[in-house]
Amino acid sequence: MKPAGKVFLVGAGPGNPDLLTLRAARLLLGASLVVHDGLVDPAILSMARPTARMISVAKSRSRHTMKQEEINALLVREALAGNDVVRLKGGDPFIFGRGGEEAQACRVAGVEVEVVPGISSALGAAAAAQIPLTHRDHASIVSFVAGQCKGLSEQDWSGLAGKGRTLVIFMGLATAAQITEKLIADGLAPDVPVAVIENATRSDMRVLRSSLAGLSNVVESERVQSPALIVIGHVTAENDNTIRALALEAIQ
């Protein structure tokens, strides 16, 4: 009987292939089976060897290629069949990547799993836009939240943003209006500066700036698409000239 394989939960980083870790690149180059998210850059997928099986488990707000339970089952099934599986996930597997659920499913089934961290899209996007998430003059606390979390209106976000704090919102495009309403209701000033970073670290990156009150208008008028992050706080006004130049260059 063929021995069980191993599952590698690999972070693909924020988009640019140059930001892969060496461990991630080596695993991808040697992989015979790659199970990947839909937002992983094609240039990263092309690094896999030509004979590798590529299985997309792309997800969007309105359509899932596979349900999460089916993805978990796929990883376990392939590993138990004796295949090493590279599960390639955007950003870092354990930051809004459901990597914890997949690792747990593997452990329960007796499948060995290794987690290979990636540069979180929050860190990559902020660095590419030259927005310091922390700054001695502006912020000593950073919070990461999911904009599509269940029961968004019931969540208590008070204290997550404001003076001395930076708030980074993942998957918040579709709920930008609700996010704005919620944060203002929880006490955040409408004029707090905001940056929306689309396609971070890629050649088509855009950085769009607004106030909190104008967030949903910017998302709608500029037709911002995923992947995109929303950064809220006074750090987004740091290095204004660089941010404006990046945004202008991206849309020309």
UniProtKB/TrEMBL annotation:
Tetrapyrrole methylase domain residues: 6-214
Enzyme class per UniProt: transferase
EC number: 2.1.1.107
GO molecular function: uroporphyrin-III C-methyltransferase activity
GO biological process, one term: cobalamin biosynthetic process
Pathway in which this enzyme or protein is active: Porphyrin-containing compound metabolism; siroheme biosynthesis; precorrin-2 from uroporphyrinogen III: step 1/1; Cofactor biosynthesis; adenosylcobalamin biosynthesis; precorrin-2 from uroporphyrinogen III: step 1/1
SUPFAM superfamilies (alphabetical): Tetrapyrrole methylase
UniProt keyword terms in alphabetical order: Cobalamin biosynthesis, Methyltransferase, Porphyrin biosynthesis, S-adenosyl-L-methionine, Transferase
Keyword Transferase: yes
Pfam families reported in the protein's UniProt record: TP_methylase
Record-linked Gene3D superfamilies: Cobalt-precorrin-4 Transmethylase, Domain 1, Methyltransferase, Cobalt-precorrin-4 Transmethylase, Domain 2
Cross-referenced CDD domains: SUMT
Entries under InterPro entries matching the protein: 4pyrrol_Mease (IPR000878), 4pyrrol_Methylase_sf (IPR035996), 4pyrrole_Mease_sub1 (IPR014777), 4pyrrole_Mease_sub2 (IPR014776), CobA/CysG_C (IPR006366), Siro_Cobalamin_biosynth (IPR050161), Uropor_MeTrfase_CS (IPR003043)
NCBIfam families listed in its UniProt record: cobA_cysG_Cterm, PRK06136.1
Protein family membership: Belongs to the precorrin methyltransferase family.
PANTHER family: S-ADENOSYL-L-METHIONINE-DEPENDENT UROPORPHYRINOGEN III METHYLTRANSFERASE, CHLOROPLASTIC, SIROHEME SYNTHASE-RELATED
Official protein name in the record: uroporphyrinogen-III C-methyltransferase
Organism: Novosphingobium silvae
